[in-house]
Amino acid sequence: MAPHRAIVVGTDGSPSSLQAVAWAAQEAALRNCALSIVTTTFVAGAYGVPIGMPESFFDDEERNGKNRLAVAAEIAGRTVPGQSLDLHTTLCTGTPAGELLERAQSAAMVVVGSNRQGIIERGFLGSVSAAVATHAPCPVAIIHDLPDSEVTRLEGPVVVGVDGSAHSEPAVSMAFVEAGLRQCELVAVHAWSDVDLPVPHGEVDGVSGWKQIVTQETALLSESLAGRAEDFPDVKVRTMVVMDRPVRNLREQADNARLLVVGSRGRGGFTSMLLGSTSRALMHSVRCPLLVVR
User: Model-level pTM greater than 0.90?
Assistant: First the structure.
């Protein structure tokens, strides 16, 4: 939570990226840190730009990029009225993922939109958000465009996935921070099966051996939360232990949450994978903001 490290957010002018700007502004205000808004523009000789484009094309690109930054800055200020936001805007000339990943090296968090829109699909979307979530060393928040509400007005708890592995420990710590900043409940979900098991959910307690496993997994979850709960005494914690696939249960809990926090890689992934199957699946299927923590 170091105040000198900025929240970095990318925008391409699309609805999801503007929702990301608003969410990032709110996060920066909660953390009392700077907000850096970046967008990209095409320049002659850049990757993907056809040879022979007229100079007017690049002039329009620069003008549009500056307009995107102005709109984003206005939205950021409007999101946290009455607060002095340390705001910086930058018009970049590199690739979207490259620019964000460069800034991620020193950022407190990177925030990106989630869908694919924009006049030349330059932006901070789709595969770009996946690339940033996969390779950024800092936490990455992925924001969806909500047609029926504003992402900054979502209510409900912060939800965190806990699998008992070392990979989920930073996510648990971050989830306590986020719940503390928002003064809301924290729901810690431990799904202790990565596969579909041939035991009906309602019969677990009645089947020999399964009740003991539930007890053990409940103890594991308590151990994972114990130290953090002492550091955040004002955060109310509700725990859930389920025999279910993590994606299915976390997606269900996220339906009524204001934020879902997960680790970048869980207990079941190959060690060479930088982004696990659970976090990758949730990127494309949850409604609320998703925070992926390495």
Answer: no
